[in-house]
Amino acid sequence: MAKRPSKKVAKSPANKMAEAVKKASGKAEGLLQLGKAAPLPASPDDAILERVPNPHPDTPYVARFTAPEFTCLCPVTGQPDFAHFVLDYAPGAWLVESKSFKLYLGSFRNTAAFHEDSTLRIGKAIADLLEPSWLRIGGYWFPRGGIPIDVFWQYGTPPEGIWIPDQGVAPYRGRG
Fold first, then answer.
1. Where in the sequence is the signal peptide annotated (predicted)?
2. Residue 98 labelled as part of a binding site
């Protein structure tokens, strides 16, 4: 029986992404945590934020991370503080690697920081790592002393023509 000629199949975006990550992991941009056992860092200073190549750097779009169970410590009382974070960004050449981001956020659990400091520290760390064209972070903090504190920060200007959804977090209303 005659052998059929093989068809050349175009690579899917997922295959292109896998190749890009594999290629990057052999360089200085190598991934240290993805696909490996990685303990929760003791503090944000010990955490390693990582990035992966954006398979669509020529397409303006928004990526969103939502972290509804963020925890850190009050620097005055030592009591836990809780927040719901929404991070939106318009990527350029890089995307934040999600496992490293999860570990970075978890590293705040035993860190004393005010709401404003935690929110801006996270936003600035991602902006420094990725150099996106635009980024915003909303820190929706649960009440401390009966007062909720929400913190917002933006980096850059949103690219023209992209859809930026509402962050979807209702203002705190207590029992009202």
1. none
2. yes
Tell me whether residue 29 is annotated as binding.
Answer: no
Q: Containing domain of residue 140, as a range?
A: 14-156
Per-residue pLDDT of the chain in tens (176 residues, 90 and over written 9): 555 444 444 454 444 545 554 554 433 357 877 778 888 889 999 999 999 999 999 999 999 999 999 999 999 999 999 999 999 999 999 999 999 999 999 999 999 999 999 999 999 999 999 999 999 999 999 998 888 899 999 999 999 999 999 999 887 776 55
Asked if 41 and 104 count as a contact pair (C-beta separation under 8 A), the reply is yes
Is the torsion defined by CA of 20, 26, 30, 31 positive or negative? Answer: positive
Task: Give the position of tokens 């934020």.
Answer: 49
Tell me the catalytic residues.
74, 81
97 is in an annotated binding site: yes
The alpha carbon torsion through 101, 23, 13, 66 (nearest 10 deg) reads: 0
From the CB of residue 13, how many other CB atoms can be counted at a distance below 10 Å? 9
CATH number of the domain residue 53 falls in: 3.30.1130.10
